[in-house]
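> example.struct
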């Protein structure tokens, strides 16, 4: 598959993935653009790996985590992120809205772990591979994120997925 074919077929999925990881659609577009600019000259090597899309997803996560070091990306303002709808008066939507706000307020690595675990349905080992860290680090980030979410929403049942 050529680079152009890859981008044509996977760009929308990469943008959705980056939006979940960054929790900011504008930052997601910037991150994906930076990743694709870096991936194009290396495509010959990237296309030969077992899972090129997984490789590019790893590049997206790494690029996002490097953006967090920049002063402009340090704070996540709800107005700058995903347009979270005003709280719905229907109770079933209220919990979802609250959860989105809470996840958006997590530190970047914890948000990335939550996104990879629950959106991408990756195992702890796969997340560790994507983030280039140990599985114990992933478990720590996941545990801290879940503890934060549980403490903020004590009336809800929040469970972690068991590692296979």
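> example.seq
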């Amino acid at each position: 598959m050529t680079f152009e074919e890859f981008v044509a077929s996977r760009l929308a999925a990469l943008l959705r993935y980056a939006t979940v990881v960054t929790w900011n659609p504008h930052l997601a577009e910037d991150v994906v653009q930076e990743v694709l600019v870096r991936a194009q000259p290396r495509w010959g090597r990237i296309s030969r790996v077992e899972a090129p899309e997984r490789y590019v997803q790893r590049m997206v996560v790494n690029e996002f985590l490097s953006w967090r070091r920049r002063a402009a990306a340090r704070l996540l303002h709800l107005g700058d992120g995903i347009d979270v709808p005003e709280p719905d008066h229907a109770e079933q939507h209220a919990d979802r809205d609250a959860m989105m706000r809470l996840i958006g307020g997590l530190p970047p690595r914890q948000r990335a772990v939550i996104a990879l675990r629950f959106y991408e349905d990756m195992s702890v080992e796969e997340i560790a591979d994507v983030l280039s860290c140990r599985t114990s680090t992933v478990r720590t980030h996941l545990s801290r994120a879940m503890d934060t979410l549980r403490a903020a929403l004590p009336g809800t049942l929040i469970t972690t997925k068991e590692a296979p």
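> remarks
The chain has a mean pLDDT of 81.
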